[in-house]
Amino acid sequence: MAKGGYSVRYCPPAEMPHIADAYRLVMLPSVEAGLAAHGLRVLTHVASHDSLVTATATANRPLRMVRDGRSKVVRDHRAGTVRSVDAERPAVLSCQVAAAQRVGNLVVVVDRNGGQNDGLVADVSPQPRLAARFAAFGFDVAEADGHDVLALRALLACDRSDRDRPLAIIADTVKGKGLRPVEGKAPSHYVTIDAARAASWKRTVR
Question: Hey, which residues does 55 pair with through a beta bridge?
């Protein structure tokens, strides 16, 4: 019996997979249902290596109990703090589901501008053979100049009511195109644009 009247039980390492399964199959669905009842969109996941959520293990203070008037360590309780959440993988999973369900009227537009918030895509998270990967998922694929509005409109205007494969449009663009101070540069992801700069740049691109 622990302080405060709580009962505790030693959990051997062999039982940890079962505890993780209990969180994944019982507790997390209950949390999702409770939050969804309040109109929230929820994603819950057990942190593990190479998953949607990864965590860094942190050692907490040992949990102690009192037995026969003596204090004993029951277990070295370990928890974790979230290290990263893969924001792209849920979108990939959604695409896989759409293809499997033959949602032919779904059109996904990928802005392939080569940049992301922490650098160049080629340096941080390369995406080789992107068109082939979408095709492998069961998509029709079209590649276009993302700055060609007429070409994009033509692709989006196609009647897909009789199609059973969703369409992925890979639009190649250049971040900041037409503005030499920021064109194609990774830091321009966070460029600050005040009123004077905005007015000057508008004159440049016209």
Answer: 82
